[in-house]
Specification:
Length: 193
Amino acid sequence: MTATDATVFTRTDETLGTFALRPVDPLTDAELLHRWVTHPKSAFYLLQDASLPEVEREFMSIAASPHHDAFLGLHNGSPAFLMERYDPRHVELAGLYPHQPGDVGMHFLCAPTEQPVHGFTRAVITTVMAMLFADPDTSRVVVEPDVRNTAVHALNEAVGFRVDSTLTKPEKEALLSFCTREQFRTATGVTPV
């Protein structure tokens, strides 16, 4: 089975079609991901100045980690977004907040485009959250976006996140936010399966 065959989650959006996620293949996906993460619109992903080999190494490191996963998101079969899932006890937030059993950390990035589609980013974050909550062991999703990233704060709120506090991390001032399964269901009407 190849990486492109390894779909781990699929969701159909009534308006925009099919969204699916598969594991990132660090070698075959690196060139595409490098274009995405170094684009000016992706500044908050913090890989702006990364070279292609650095992006490849970053995703190889994620693939090798027992506490971190990366997924390539497809929209109607074409690569369109990136999602990372991590265990906040070990990655990103280790020791920075009171961890609870069932906490899962998440990052996502929509591919930069010159032709934005209305509602696309919200459909992506809804798909990402539905995938995370499809795991019965996930009780709460944790995010820590840059405090300046007001666009993602609005998206997070739209899918049920509530701001907890501001954290000082080495690379940024972050807005620690949480979303429970029930908050997600109430905000979006989506029941993860």
